[in-house]
Amino acid sequence: MPESVYLVANGDLRLAANRKCWPAQQRAEAAVIAAVESLGHTIVRGHPYDDAKGHGFIDSQKHGMQVFRQIPPTAPLIVCEAVWQYSHHLLHGLYTHRGPILTVANWSGEWPGLVGMLNLNGSLTKAGIEYSTLWSADFTDAAFRDGLARWLGGQAVTHDTSHVRGVAEAGLPADALEQGAAFGAAFRRRKHIMGVFDEGCMGMYNAIIPDELLHPTGVFKERLSQSALYAAMREVTAAEAQAVRDWLDARGMRFLTGSDEETELTDAQILDQCRMYIAALRIADDFGCDTIGIQYQQGLKDLSPASDLVEGLLNNADRPPAYAHDGRLLYAGEALPHFNEVDECAGLDGLLTYWLWRQLGYDPENTLHDVRYGEDYQGRFVWVFEISGAAPPQHFIGGYAGTTSERQPPMYFRLGGGTVKGISKPGEVVWSRVYVDKGVLKADLGLAESVELPRAETERRWSVTTPQWPIMHAVTRGVSRDQMMARHKANHIQVAYAPDRGAAVRGLAAKAAAFQALGLEVAICGTL
Fold it and tell me: Hey, what domains does the chain have and what are their CATH numbers?
């Protein structure tokens, strides 16, 4: 008889999220278990449902260690995800597990398992842990069942990655490559400071660049504390915070407010976010930071409203003025590139992109999104790129006038706070991801088109994901859905607009060469 297959389900640290998302996880697990059993194998759930908590997730590193002590170290192991998960809850067990590992996610934008699995896959890649991966809408399709059968038979699951090429093979314009190489060399010589407000958000091991890999790029971390940010918020006057709100109102940004702090966005929450915006700029100025990342999720979430409004404004070159205590205008005329959820890979990418795009004469605003979901629309596969609110208004149809701020979902953001919500404008996009692979700093780059869908379709896609968050409808050039899932080593993807297709190709080339000048190993994904 074949060895029993074990299944584990990793979840959030937040009890409310785990309880809310548990039914979706149950449905996914039932389908995966049925598929395994139909192929003649027995499956054992590695940890029980907890009646007191109201869910059956691994919900802490402590819990994960208890679970893995009970799992045979050579057993085939499936990590089944229908939700966002904190990778560090089980990374320790996967480091030492000697049996084959399969990560599985449901193809759904709901909570979302796809994003959780991509984060886990990126973390496993960084750690050098071998794994296979599969995804499916209902776990009955041929691709899933064939891959599962191969894995159960002792084979690794492989996917098509023929869309990946080296820079030299991509046919990129030579003058743009030269320009990028010169920019990268100058960027490296100048040196930059990356302000990190508490490292390691939500177990995202893949989002931490080890110092010994980051320093050769010319970027050095200033490790800051969110408690210092909260203290600085308390020094911002009510008049200063109100001035930020007034500026946004004058630009036509709409705040959808109410009076119930538990479920609605309130004016008081917005003013606290305005305080955080000023406080973040002041601390960044004090320490000479060229880019910053606020963790928010742990610690600060128990003290203040969400940081997403702050982050979206910081990523926009045209933003409310903020002043130092001595009256100086801070970062005049420029964005302060912010990397959501202290994703340092996105931080390095966003900082380099901002100043390279400035040199190229393009709009420099860029941001990360989650690779959230996607569906076919009129013959093309259109991704839903969506983040918790930190996108810049410059990316949206209508700019500030096309931007709304809505209360963050209570299950994730107990103290509320508003998002920076909009629909990304149509246009040419360069996408990228910096990541760590077994001790090597790498970057994947490609082209995409941000497309405008009918408003009804946009609303439908928001309804099956998170309707409070900004959205980009993206078509990746020469990269299919499954190729993206097979290759991408992160839950996040960086996006920046170019004026037209030719400019996008030149920007891609310059960015690839700039990354190479910093010492990164670069791949071009898809077609030009």
Answer: 5-152 (3.40.50.1070), 169-525 (3.40.275.10)
